[in-house]
Design goal:
alpha+beta, YaeB-like fold, 3 helices, 5 strands
Length: about 110
């Protein structure tokens, strides 16, 4: 089992989702808890174009456009960084990667002893 934490930004996004969307995200987060780094396609994939080893959770309910960016911290826990809906957004990854990287850097600074 992997501990899964979330940033305040991720929590705010999650709270704004509809009940069915929350269930979809909860499902893939549950898979992440159980499978950890072994979780792969179709529920998780590496983010291309990031300078860090970021990944995204992809709920499959109705071919969902929802994405939740995460990374594995040095303690091997997972940190949910940010979530979003990529439907109709051609710049989704460009925007999300930049924000996820900033959140990741901030987290790593706080984790230093």
């Amino acid at each position: 089992m992997v501990d899964v934490e979330a940033t305040t930004e991720f929590k705010r996004w999650f709270e704004g989702l509809a009940p069915g969307e929350k269930r979809s995200i909860d499902l893939v987060v549950g898979l992440l808890r159980v499978q950890g780094v072994a979780l792969g396609a179709p529920y998780s994939s590496a983010i291309q174009g990031s300078r860090f080893p970021l990944r995204e959770l992809r709920p499959k309910r109705g071919a969902s456009p929802l994405r939740a960016f995460y990374a594995f911290a040095p303690r091997r826990n997972a940190l949910l960084l940010i979530g979003g809906d990529k439907a109709g957004d051609n710049r989704f990854y460009q925007r999300m990667i930049a924000r996820a990287e900033a959140l990741w850097v901030e987290y790593l600074k706080q984790e230093k002893p």
